[in-house]
UniProtKB/TrEMBL annotation:
Belongs to the ABC transporter superfamily. It comes from the Bacteria. SUPFAM superfamilies: P-loop containing nucleoside triphosphate hydrolases. Pfam families: ABC_tran. InterPro entries: AAA+_ATPase, ABC_transporter-like_ATP-bd, ABC_transporter-like_CS, P-loop_NTPase. This is ATP-binding cassette domain-containing protein. It comes from Zooshikella harenae.
């Protein structure tokens, strides 16, 4: 599944409804993720950010509504296929402890039976862009700093060149200075290899730093979805204004 870069939205949710234990979280929820842009979802704990991400990667099935990926409607039965086109990185990183950093990064490409030369070429490219040298790549996860492990996790998520990248608090486990460095690495890669990114974060400052668009969520609804500058200069509700004031 290739993303046509002229496609307005690489991911589209149409009229999604979802309840947990008869408690509605999403009701008639629609959302479009702009192609080859970074979109941040910001909102308080429990507003539905991670659930939205799980709907997009097929981990959760909506009660009602449609999901379109790269212009095609997908059904829950295709989830294995559609997930192959998505990279996924989370706060907990989840590197395999018995594999070196390099082997963590290349594992999926090996499973996909890429040639050894393509694997090594892709690994070198990502490692260079993310500032990971040979010494770091040969270490095991317990020998890495939090920031190094996060960059390894990002490289792993991007190994197969997924057109869509889902990041759930993927930058939050490190100190602010290391985080700034990782932002720079990440943005450099996004410049050379643009992809459609959904970034889930509590941190409005991170959203402003990294994203093209911000969607602010409150209790299963998007209360503002606009380019970053607009969210900052013209917050649509008091809640968005508070987020902007308190965090920027
Ligand atoms: N599998 C589940 N079963 C029941 N309730 C769930 C389930 N998953 C999520 N919820 C509920 O749905 C709501 C939204 O959860 P979600 O994890 O999407 O929030 P979030 O915005 O990502 O929060 P946080 O920022 O704390 O991670 C919460 O009230 C949560 O308790």
């Amino acid at each position: 599944m290739q993303v046509d870069s002229t496609l307005k939205a690489a991911v589209e949710l149409r009229n999604i409804s979802l309840s947990f234990d008869s408690q509605p979280l999403f009701q008639n929820f629609s959302f479009e993720l702009p192609t080859e842009k970074i979109t941040a979802i910001v909102g308080a704990s429990g507003c539905g950010k991670s659930t939205l991400l799980k709907l997009i990667n097929g981990l959760i099935q909506p009660d009602d509504g449609e999901i379109h990926i790269c212009g095609q409607q997908v059904s829950h039965n295709d989830q294995a296929e559609w997930r192959r086109h998505m990279g996924y990185a989370v706060q907990q990183i989840g590197l395999f402890p018995h594999l070196s950093a390099a082997n963590n990064v290349v594992l999926l490409a090996q499973l996909e039976q890429w040639t050894e030369s393509s694997i090594q070429e892709r690994l070198s490219y990502l490692a260079e862009k993310m500032g990971l040298d040979q010494a770091i790549l040969s270490r095991f996860p317990h020998e890495l700093s939090g920031g190094q492990a996060q960059r390894v996790g990002l490289c792993r998520a991007m190994m197969l060149k997924p057109p869509i990248l889902l990041l759930d608090e993927a930058f939050s486990a490190v100190d602010p200075i290391t985080r700034m460095d990782i932002y720079q690495y990440f943005l450099r890669l996004q410049e050379t290899e643009p992809r459609t990114v959904l970034l889930i974060t509590h941190d409005m400052r991170e959203a402003v730093k990294l994203s093209d668009h911000i969607a602010v969520m409150q209790q299963g609804e998007i209360v503002q979805f606009a380019p970053v500058e607009q969210v900052v200069s013209q917050p649509a509700t008091d809640y968005v204004a508070r987020l902007v004031q308190e965090h920027i």
